[in-house]
From TrEMBL:
Family according to the record: Belongs to the glycosyl hydrolase 59 family.
Protein name as it appears in the record: galactosylceramidase
KW Transferase (keyword) present: no
EC annotation from Swiss-Prot or TrEMBL: 3.2.1.46
Top-rank taxon, per record: Bacteria
Composition bias type Polar residues, residue spans: 106-115
Keywords: Lipid degradation, Lipid metabolism, Signal, Sphingolipid metabolism
Region forming the signal peptide: 1-29
Species: Streptomyces xiangluensis
Length: 989
């Protein structure tokens, strides 16, 4: 089983000596920060015979924990944008991503959410189409047939877990793996290339099971079982492909146990094809140089070990850049409050440095992003750490981050992938002797020390090479590169491709992946180039100057239009009273294209079949949410995870819940029919205005009801009111949220009204249950007359359009996932100000605040509020709201009078409101104050009053874009401005 171990073992001492000769290098002894860095690319060091360890495999992505959940909705609702994404990430002659790794789900939350279990019971037929990762791989293969697919588990379904806990679950585990693998093979035509049989992020690799599992694969002869669905004429082909599955081990988190184990155990060495670990760039450095615990991963990759054979070494899970690069360039994290540009900790350049350092220090030639695509709703754990943001399938919005350009500096200047058995694929080799990293840190690395950071990739024929250099410091860095024993041909010209931030007056992306220079070696044979601060360059002997793919720009983002549909839930309609609806029948949906035949073709499948009966637009946090037939044969949404399935492991333990909708929804009424088909019991929940978190209690307002009629209304997880209605097998639940007033309805009757003194004003809808099969149907989200239904554009605190004056700290590194794009701007300096251009009738200041900030507010240069108080609120909530302006373009200026203000984002409020608004209170105030004379009052106090008076008169004259909240604020501002009028004669006294 596994690879044959080569004959001709070498001694441990000889292996250690070979390891040192193979690039286990340190910085040049004479190195100082100002010295040029000399790099010798010697053809002797280009090991064309090393087919596994030093071949540069490029990049991979991990699909798991709901991170890919909304991609299937993109494919159905905006197929053009979806297939464009597939081409950008996986297509072309130099693909960015060569590998899709699928973490099999168990309906439990193991990070940002849950992925469906492919088998919820031992008798259920496996359904790989439930898991978006398997389908993503199938679609990616249509543009990259050589793409690798791997699987692993974190937790497992309860029927497996129950036996595993007894110590007798190997057969159950194998059945789950095998039937899932064969179902993907039957549906999509590809065989999984790698399996990690061990638990994800283990700290104690299960070597016995790895051996058992490999033996089970190679000795398995059963491929005719009808459960697998493989036609008789394809069973032999399936058997051969199945027997060729490779073993990856062991996806440890930070620990380094599997490397020494593989080196010390000849049987394990023969079984394991690839080793990897997470979130640590460094090798293990324990014991003597010739011991298995000293640089084991370097020994494995270089082949300089007692077996004289090289193995693949993966950075098998790592982060992408944090936040959006176009926002983080406006940070103040550099020296003396300067920006770090596209660099800094957790930036695009950090990602590049991490890739270089993980190769230089532990010879890892494959980096897998968790995730590369963020296709789950923001506000879940680990938001905003991705290369592509894909969270609004109804709009087609996709954000391609500049970190993609940075990573293309590795993948577009080399032939990446896996070498074939005959060593003729031409995959470029990494060159240890011409690679080095001196940056600090082992995960979130810091290149501000100016130390060298470079990685060299070379054609195995020695005809070309590329050296990628990262300079994440504030000083330029000169590199001198010399080729020896290479066959570069008659034209030794080297192209310099560069990515860095914009210069003053340039567009944001002006310097992204562009040809910066062409150079030739000097008389001494060295190419000399000075790398600018906060930049990445690829110095390559390839001629890419006329290559269209290399010069291709990433697609532009579309507008993030709010989810506002007609009654079908399919078509956009901003004029009716429906925000969204789902009856789970999906008659309005057409067929969906799916990659099949191992990428050879696409087929068109019915909507629900194409996605394993997963509902539209829903992101599951816990539970088995799937569309099925009720007793009448109609489609309903079921939560299937019952008492028999509930005790499987989970990182984040919650009762089942799922989320749907737009984070900008504000004032709306959500309704859903619930029923309880499980005779053992049940509970159904409906929540509104969810912004963050992964439990039903993270919906700001939620009601829960049981079959006996007992119900409870909650603000988050705190019970506010309880009651009982007549017991029933079904109910219609509704919550109406308008401003601070939250009303709960059961079967059309109001049972609770709650006034929240510090309301959450925006958020999505949640559905929830207990661990019983529960049915949901006829979900409807409706607008409320007189209230603006949703915010419009969101403006980040780091957006270039937002201007700051005074002392501000603007941070992105180590930002909180609950802050939009992990950035905040903070000030405690009296007189500090920020100015925000927006379009609409109002604006909200979003950010976690302690309520000490006092603000003066100006709109279009005119005062609208003096000494305005802010609210003490959690992250993602509004600390200050302004309403009642005329719909249009405005500029808001806020001046900090005292206290502390933390800014996360600004939400603009559009003027789209249905129904008339009562302005009686404004008229009464106008009548009460009469007609003060301007000449009697000071200029400052009159300016504020005049602004409020003008807004009040406009409101009562029939302002069409006015809503209830705007009318309330106009009245309150007029009262306050009138109170603040200061008579001139009073100041004279």
């Amino acid at each position: 089983m596994g690879k044959q171990i080569r004959l001709g073992w070498v001694s441990l001492a000889a292996a250690a000596a070979l390891a040192l000769a193979a690039g286990v290098i340190t910085a040049p002894a004479a190195y100082t920060a100002d010295d040029p860095v000399e790099v010798i690319v010697n053809g002797i060091d280009v090991r064309s015979d090393n087919m596994n360890g030093l071949t540069y495999k490029g990049l991979g992505l991990l699909s798991c924990n709901s991170t890919s959940n909304l991609l299937m909705d993109y494919k159905a609702e905006n197929p053009g944008r979806y297939w464009q994404l597939i081409r950008v990430l996986f297509g072309g002659k130099d693909p960015l991503i060569n590998h899709v790794k699928v973490e099999m789900g168990s309906d439990t939350n193991t990070s940002t959410g849950s992925d469906p279990a492919t088998m919820r019971t031992p008798d259920e037929l496996a359904d790989a189409s439930r898991s978006p990762g398997f389908q993503l791989a199938a679609d990616a293969k249509t543009v990259n047939p050589k793409l690798k697919v791997s699987i692993l588990r974190w937790e497992m379904p309860e029927w497996v877990q129950n036996e595993w806990d007894k110590g007798t679950g190997t057969d159950e585990m194998y059945k789950w793996y095998k039937e899932t693998i064969l179902d993907a093979y039957e549906k999509y035509g590809y065989m999984v290339d790698y399996v990690d049989p061990d638990k994800n992020e283990t700290r104690n690799p299960d070597e016995a099971f790895i051996k058992w599992y490999k033996n089970a694969i190679v000795t398995d002869t059963d491929f005719a079982n009808p459960r697998y669905g493989i036609p008789a004429d394809k069973q032999q082909k399936a058997k051969k492909a199945y027997h060729n599955i490779k073993i990856m081990a062991s996806d440890e988190n930070n620990t380094h146990h599997i490397g020494p184990s593989v080196l010390s155990d000849a049987e394990l060495f023969g079984i394991v094809d690839a080793v990897g670990y997470h979130y640590n760039t460094d090798d293990r450095l324990e014991g003597d140089a010739d011991s298995d615990t000293y640089q084991p991963y370097t020994k494995l990759a270089t082949g300089n070990n007692k077996y004289n054979e090289d193995k693949e070494v993966w950075y098998s899970e790592g982060t992408a850049s944090f936040g959006h690069t176009e926002y983080r360039v406006n940070n103040t994290e550099g020296p003396n409050g300067a920006s770090t540009g596209i660099g800094g900790v957790q930036s695009a350049l950090d990602l590049a440095n991490r890739s270089v350092k993980s190769y230089a220090n532990s010879k890892r030639t494959h980096y897998i992003f968790q995730p590369a695509i963020g296709s789950f709703y923001e506000g879940a754990q680990y938001s905003h750490k991705e290369l592509v943001s894909a969270r609004d399938p109804w709009s087609g919005y996709l954000h391609y981050d500049a970190a993609l350009y940075v990573m293309q500096h590795f993948t577009q200047f080399a032939r990446t992938g896996w070498e074939n058995d005959t060593n003729t694929a031409g995959i470029w080799r990494t060159v240890p002797e011409a690679s080095y990293s001196g940056v600090s840190g082992t995960e979130n690395v810091d290149g501000s020390n100016g130390a060298p950071s470079y990685m060299t990739l070379a054609d195995p024929r020695k005809k070309d090479f590329s050296t990628v250099v990262v300079n994440d410091s504030d000083q330029p860095k000169t590199y001198r590169i010399k080729a020896e024993n290479m066959r570069l041909g008659s034209d030794p010209t080297m192209e310099i491709w560069e990515t860095r931030g914009a210069d003053a007056g340039q567009a944001y992306d002006a310097n992204f992946k562009h040809l910066a220079d062409e150079i030739r070696p000097g008389g001494d044979g060295f190419y000399t180039y000075t790398v600018k601060p906060r930049s990445i360059v690829t110095l390559t002997t390839l001629d890419k100057s006329r290559d269209k793919a290399t010069k291709q720009r990433l697609p532009k983002s579309w507008d993030r239009t709010v989810l506002d549909t007609d009654a079908t839930g399919k078509k956009r309609n901003t004029r009716d009273n429906i925000l969204y609806a789902d009856d789970f029948g999906y008659e309005e949906e057409g067929r969906v294209q799916v990659g099949t035949a191992d990428g050879a073709r696409k087929v068109s499948r019915p909507y629900l079949m194409s996605r394993g009966n997963q509902p539209r637009y829903m992101v599951d946090q816990t539970g088995a949410w799937e569309v099925g037939k009720d007793a009448r044969g109609d489609n309903v949404l079921y939560q299937y995870m019952d008492q028999s399935m509930k005790d499987t492991g989970a990182w984040n333990r919650h009762t089942p819940n799922t989320t749907v909708g737009d984070f900008r929804w504000e004032n709306y009424r959500a309704t859903v029919d619930v029923s309880f088909p499980d005779p053992a019991g049940g509970l159904a929940a409906l929540g509104v205005r969810q912004q963050k978190g992964m439990a039903i209690s993270d919906a700001a307002y939620n009601v829960r009801i049981r079959p006996n009629g007992a119900w409870t209304f909650y603000e988050y997880g705190t019970a506010v009111k309880t009651g009982t209605v007549a017991a029933s097998s079904s109910y219609r639940l509704a919550i109406e949220a308008k401003g601070a007033t939250i009303t709960t309805f059961i079967d059309g009757k109001a049972v609770s009204t709650y006034q929240d003194p510090t309301p959450e004003t925006e958020g999505r809808v949640k559905l929830g249950s207990d661990f019983y099969k529960t049915a949901f149907d006829n979900l409807k989200v409706e607008k409320i007359d007189g209230y603006t239904p949703y915010a419009g554009a969101q403006i980040d605190n780091m957006a270039g359009s937002v201007a700051y004056e005074g002392a501000w700290s603007r941070k992105n590194a180590f930002g909180d996932a609950m802050d939009w794009y992990r950035s905040t701007s903070t000030s405690t300096a009296a007189g500090a100000s920020f100015t925000v251009p927006f379009t609409g009738t109002g604006i909200d200041i979003i950010g976690g605040n302690d309520g000490t900030a006092v603000l003066d507010v100006y709109i279009d240069g005119k005062p609208v509020a003096k000494d305005a108080k802010t609210a003490a609120v959690d992250k993602r909530l509004a600390t200050y709201t302004l309403r009642g302006l005329r719909d249009g373009k405005h500029t808001a200026q806020f001046v900090l009078k005292s206290g502390k203000i933390a800014l996360d984002a600004f939400n603009a409020i559009p003027g789209d409101v249905n129904g008339p608004v009562d302005t009686t209170a404004i008229r009464s105030t106008l009548d009460r104050i009469g007609s003060p004379t301007q000449a009697d009052y000071t200029a400052d106090s009159w300016a504020l009053f005049d602004s409020a008076l003008s807004a009040a008169k406009t409101a009562v004259s029939g302002q069409k874009d006015l809503d209830v909240l705007g009318a309330e604020q106009i009245k309150n501002r007029l009262d306050e401005a009138y109170k603040r009028l200061v008579r001139k004669d009073a100041t004279a006294e």
